[in-house]
Each structure stands twice: as C-alpha cells, then as structure tokens.
Design brief:
By secondary structure, the chain is mostly helical. Helices cover about 80% and strands about 0% of the residues. The protein has helices spanning about 1-25, 35-45, 50-55, 60-80, 85-100, 100-110, 115-125, 130-135, 140-145, 145-165, 170-194. α7 (about 115-125) crosses α10 (about 145-165). It is globular and about 50 Å long. The protein starts with a helix and ends with a helix.
Length: about 190
C-alpha cells in the first residue's frame, strides 16, 4: 500500500512538473495572454479535467513555476550559507542565481507579471521559506507584513533593474548596492529588536 501511494505521488509530481514546464516553454515563445489551458492540454495530450486536478487555472500554474524558482534560489542560498560563507558571498550567490534566470525574468517583465511575482514571493517567504528567514534572522520579516512586503519589493526592484540594464553592472558592484539597499536595513531592524 505504501509503495502504491509513493508511486502515485511521484507520478503526480512528474505530471505537475510537465504542465509547469509546458507553460514555461510556451511563454518563452508567446505572450502570457495568448497561452490557454486548452493549448497546454492539447500539447500534453491530457484532458482539461486532468489539468484541473493539478491547477485551478493558468495563473496557479505560473505561480507554481515562480515558487519552484524561489525554492531553487533558497536552496542555493542555504548551500552557500551552510559553509559559513560571509554575507557578500551569500548575496553574490543570490544575485548570480537571478542573473542566470534571464529567460524567467524575460517572461516576468515582458508579460507584465511583476505583481504576480511579488505576491508569490511574499507568500513563499511567509509560508515556505524558513531557510531565508533563518539566515536573515529578522523576526519582523515573519511578524510584520509591511516589513516583508518592503523587503520583497526592494529585492525584486534590484533584480529587475539589473536585468533591464542587461546585467551590465558588475556582480561586485551589485553586491555592494544590495548590501546598502536591502541587507543593511534588515540588519538595523535586527539590532533594534535586541
């Protein structure tokens, strides 16, 4: 019985990921508004009912893609911070992760999905990402919606502006900008609490 349940959840995970990947591939070639659930079902050779077993709509599917990217970023941060890396190294890992996700940022920016990206980032940090909260060690990120929203907004702004510049600002300079704009204010909040 346990093996059957495990097999079912693996199959379910694979199907869910196939749907997400199909949407992502479509968005690399077409605008968000022109990709429909019917298109995805046709390409994957599944019924609409099967799609709806995994996602209530296309937006939910794209939110899952955003969460997957955020989870990957969080794991990269965890790997670098686990080795006792200094904040500059961890920030560089964070920024490099997003620099390497140009196609994802293309989709977000060119389809005007920044609001969805922002909302999913806030949700992800609040509900799923204890790694980042532990690393930043700022309880206000967990307890104050305003602080969390401001932190997410600053992060997205930094990443998107860097993306729009074609990532021409050197990584070392971006680490300094990030520390000044996002990390230092959080550290000052942490110090005030203690």
């Amino acid at each position: 019985m346990a093996l059957s349940k495990t097999t079912g959840s693996v199959t379910s995970y694979r199907r869910r990921k196939q749907i997400e990947d199909c949407l992502f591939q479509n968005l690399l070639q077409r605008p968000y508004t022109s990709v429909s659930v019917s298109d995805l079902c046709h390409q994957l050779e599944i019924s609409r009912k099967s799609f709806y077993n995994y996602f209530p709509d296309k937006d939910s599917c794209f939110r899952a893609i955003i969460s997957r990217k955020l989870r990957q970023c969080s794991l990269a941060i965890a790997a670098s911070s686990r080795d006792g890396a200094d904040p500059d190294t961890v920030i560089a890992v964070f920024l490099t992760f997003w620099m390497e996700e140009r196609s994802f940022l293309d989709i977000i920016v060119h389809n005007d999905l920044l609001t969805m990206y922002f909302e999913q980032c806030v949700h992800f940090i609040r509900e799923e990402d204890k790694i980042l909260l532990d690393y930043l060690n700022t309880p206000q990120l967990e307890t104050d919606e305003y602080v969390l929203a401001c932190f997410v907004n600053i992060n997205i702004t930094i990443i998107v502006l860097w993306y729009k510049s074609g990532f021409e600002i050197p990584l070392e300079d971006m680490v300094c900008k990030y520390k000044r704009m996002a990390y230092a204010p959080l550290l000052s909040l942490s110090c005030k609490e203690k």
